[in-house]
Amino acid sequence: MPASSARQPQDLMQLLTRAERVAARRLQSVLDEDGCSLDAWRVLTLLSDGKGHSMTAVAEAAFLPAPTLTKLVDHLVDQNLVYRRVDPLDRRRILAHLTPRGQTYWRRLSREVRTRWPVLNEGDDELLRALLGRLLDTLEETAAVDSA
Length: 148
Fold this sequence. Notes:
InterPro entries: HTH_MarR-typ, MarR/SlyA-like, WH-like_DNA-bd_sf, WH_DNA-bd_sf
Pfam families: MarR_2 (PF12802)
Protein name: DNA-binding MarR family transcriptional regulator
Order of helices and strands: HHEHHEEHH
GO molecular function: DNA binding
Organism: Streptomyces pseudovenezuelae
């Protein structure tokens, strides 16, 4: 008896990939109006918490290799949206922060994205977040067991 389609990893991968690509295109269409890339938006979103983040943390959050992130942050610095400072707790690390202009820019982008982003009903949105979180946890746990 063939396995049910719900148990086929390729079906889930197809849905996840398609959803990510459609969502990225939708988001990019909003960001294009302000001349912002999806990668820059991810960086700005992380830095919007005001805490300052190491370049390693920013690279991980933005899903970018270090050299690509460095070029992107250089560009954001040139636009006066981001600045870098030495971490006062570990002088070997550099922390990235939003400038006041960067905060204003990010708030405007964020408002525009929220306004134009299609919303599931609240219960479905929370359910999707929970299920994706569980999927990530399961995949990470399985990867850790497989590599041990």
